[in-house]
Amino acid sequence: MKIKKLNIYLAIFLPIQILLVQLASKNAEFIETYYSNGIYPIISKILRFLFGWIPFSFGDLLIALLLFLVIRFLVLLIKNRFRNFISKIIGLIASLSVIYFCFYLFWGLNYYRESLATPQKN
Q1: Taking the C-alpha atoms of 82, 86, 89 and 93 in order, what is their torsion angle to the nearest 10 degrees?
Q2: How far is the CA of 104 from the CAs of 55, 71, 87, 91, in angstroms?
Q3: Number of domains in the chain
Q4: Can you give the pTM of this predicted structure?
Q5: Max alpha carbon distance in the chain (Å)?
Q6: Which of 1, 44, 93, 108 has the fewest C-beta atoms lying within 10 Å of its C-beta?
Q7: pLDDT (tens digit, 9 = 90+) per residue, 75-102?
């Protein structure tokens, strides 16, 4: 099975994303200024508009779906006796890259905001 170029690019992008998140986590002021007070309010309004009508957490539903897909992936991998193992692992890493990106873009960078104990500038 041929490995898709997009999967290769996404798989390569995962360690770059991890490095960028680690660098951003060291600069709480940057996160506070550009993410938490910049793009996150816009993202939050869009997500609230799209999913606010659902009476349960959409994120929990996504986590359950992700768990199901990982179990299905492992079962099919074993059932097919690890055929096309490299291309399937690259596809899995590419999927993880997209999930990682979405998590940190849509909410995860808020973990690295300035704490409430940080003195505010006047």
Answers
A1: 180
A2: 24, 24, 26, 20
A3: 1
A4: 0.83
A5: 63
A6: 1
A7: 988 998 888 889 889 988 999 999 999 9
